[in-house]
């Protein structure tokens, strides 16, 4: 893997981009991430070429399927991974024919996401939908899930559990569970401490 591996994320949901960014930054030392909310914005990007592009299959404007070929022409060495909540065999076939290297579920855990992206950054063959590894003996802390990263981002903006639930279409009890898991992960006991720790670690702006 390069000393400064680079991923380009194309998704029109800012909260999902923020959550996925946290997962990747926490799991891959030295990773640099560029992002765009649309294919048009990605095509205008003039920075260094990424090793991996994470592309939402359902974008406003030009679709992700249309974008696979465009992005591969722009960055010939990049591996394009399609992001999807669900994908039919026909969609998978079309994307593969256009040059997509792999599919990644938006509902995947942090471990699954990293197990797919890290080998691609090394230039290895993709391992789609890898299994979640069992918990390590002694209760080793797990990484935050993308959903917990979204909750952390909103929590750092000062939103209450009820407001976070409305924003993410989750029940208040579900949000409370994500908040508790996030506090435990960061080894803090309050929301203000969590916000400080998240900013110190570079997890949120």
Structure characterization notes:
With 205 residues, the chain is of the alpha/beta class. The chain folds into 2 domains: 6-122, 3-Layer(aba) Sandwich (Rossmann fold), CATH 3.40.50.2300; 146-200, Winged helix-like DNA-binding domain superfamily/Winged helix DNA-binding domain (Arc Repressor Mutant, subunit A, Orthogonal Bundle). Helix content is 47%, strand content 12%. The protein is built from 9 helices and 5 strands. A 5-stranded parallel β-sheet has the order 2-1-3-4-5, sandwiched between helices. Helix 4 (89-97) links the parallel strand 4 (79-84) and strand 5. The longest helix is centred in the C-terminal third of the chain and has 15 residues, at 172-186. The radius of gyration is 17 Å and the shape is globular. It starts with 5 loop residues before the first strand and ends in a 5-residue tail after the last helix. The model is unreliable at 128-141 (pLDDT under 50). This is Response regulator transcription factor. Keywords: DNA-binding, Phosphoprotein.
- CATH class category of the largest domain: Alpha Beta
- Cross-sheet strand order for the largest sheet: 2-1-3-4-5
Overall number of structural domains: 2
Q: Figure out the total of helices.
A: 9
By secondary-structure content and strand pairing, the structural class works out as alpha/beta
Largest sheet: 5 strands, parallel
What is the string of SSEs from the N terminus onward? EHEHEHEHEHHHHH
Overall pLDDT confidence: 82
Enter the CATH topology name of the largest domain. Answer: Rossmann fold
Can you tell me the overall shape? Answer: globular
Give the termini distance in whole angstroms: 26 Å
Q: What is the CATH superfamily of the largest domain?
A: Response regulator
Which architecture of the largest domain does the CATH hierarchy give at level 2? Answer: 3-Layer(aba) Sandwich
Report the portion of residues in β strands.
5-15%
The tally of beta strands, per DSSP, is: 5
Radius of gyration over alpha carbons?
17 Å
- Low-pLDDT segments, ≥5 res: 128-141
Roughly how much helix do the residues carry, as a percent range?
A: 40-55%
Modified residues (4-aspartylphosphate): 56
Domain Response regulatory: 6-121
Keywords: DNA-binding, Phosphoprotein
GO molecular function: DNA binding
């Amino acid at each position: 893997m390069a000393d400064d591996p680079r991923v380009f994320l194309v998704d029109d949901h800012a909260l999902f981009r923020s959550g996925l960014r946290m997962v990747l930054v926490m799991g891959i030392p030295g990773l640099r991430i560029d992002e765009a909310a649309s294919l048009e914005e990605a095509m205008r990007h003039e920075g260094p070429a990424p090793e991996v592009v994470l592309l939402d299959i359902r974008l406003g404007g030009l679709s992700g399927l249309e974008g696979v070929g465009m992005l591969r022409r722009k960055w010939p060495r990049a591996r394009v991974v399609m992001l999807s909540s669900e994908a039919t065999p026909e969609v998978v076939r079309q994307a593969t024919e256009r040059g997509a290297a792999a599919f990644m579920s938006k509902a995947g855990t942090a471990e699954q996401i990293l197990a797919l992206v890290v080998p691609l950054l090394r230039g290895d063959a993709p391992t789609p939908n890898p299994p979640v590894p069992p918990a390590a003996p002694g209760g080793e802390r797990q990484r935050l899930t993308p959903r917990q990263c979204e909750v952390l981002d909103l929590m750092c903006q000062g939103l209450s559990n009820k407001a976070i639930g409305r924003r993410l279409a989750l029940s208040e009890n579900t949000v409370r569970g994500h908040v508790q898991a996030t506090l435990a992960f960061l080894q803090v006991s309050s929301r203000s401490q969590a916000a400080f720790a998240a900013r110190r670690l570079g997890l949120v702006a």
